[in-house]
Amino acid sequence: MNWKQILFVTSFFSIFSVVPSQAATIGALVDGQITSLSVKEGDKVNKGQALLSIDSRALQASLAQIKAKLRLAESELKDAKVDFEAEKALFDQNATAKRRYEASLLFKDRATAKVDALRAELNEVQAKLAYYEIVSPVDGVVTKLWVQLGDTVFHENMKMIEIEAKP
């Protein structure tokens, strides 16, 4: 038998374009248990739409403590200001020692600093509360869920949801 090698050459021509897809992989910046999950794979989502919530009760308790400490510090500051004004009036009339005047000023300044520090702490905790509500950063379709309701998430490099962005 004599086999001949036959080479077939075919050609075709087509026009197509490739549109790169962009996917947003969503993780958490905080630890906690997922308390709500409002999407599933295949769902269309809009930018800003709620995807899931993480239990924030511990942070909310801290927020309540800071608010209480701030109220106390503000009342202490108010008292320190009254004392300072009284000492200042007496000092201006040469009716009290400079040391008492300076001590009341120092007390007022410390009370002011305490209020400022607590306000900063309050702002920080309020800002962190936003991290417990995960929203979509893009319009698109949920392509992958790595978590389910009740799972505990850890903030470092833990993937939760992937969304393919609409072009």
Shape: rod-shaped
**The CATH homology group name:** RNA polymerase II/Efflux pump adaptor protein, barrel-sandwich hybrid domain
Strand content: 15-25%
Which runs of at least 5 residues are low in confidence (pLDDT < 50)?
Answer: 6-14
Classified by CATH, the class is Mainly Beta
Number of DSSP strands?
8
C-alpha end-to-end distance = 60 Å
The secondary structure category is alpha+beta
In N-to-C order, the SSE pattern is: EEEEHHEEEE
For this structure, the CATH topology is: OB fold (Dihydrolipoamide Acetyltransferase, E2P)
Radius of gyration: 32 Å
Q: Can you give keywords for this protein?
A:
4-stranded antiparallel beta sheet; alpha+beta; OB fold (Dihydrolipoamide Acetyltransferase, E2P); 2 helices; 41% helix; 167 residues
Q: Care to give the gist of this entry?
A:
This protein is an alpha+beta fold and 167 residues long.
Explain what the structure shows.
There is one protein chain. The protein has 167 residues and is of the alpha+beta class. The protein has one domain (23-165): OB fold (Dihydrolipoamide Acetyltransferase, E2P), CATH 2.40.50.100. Helix content is 41%, strand content 22%. The chain has two helices and eight strands. α1 runs antiparallel to α2 (98-129). The longest helix has 36 residues, at 57-92.
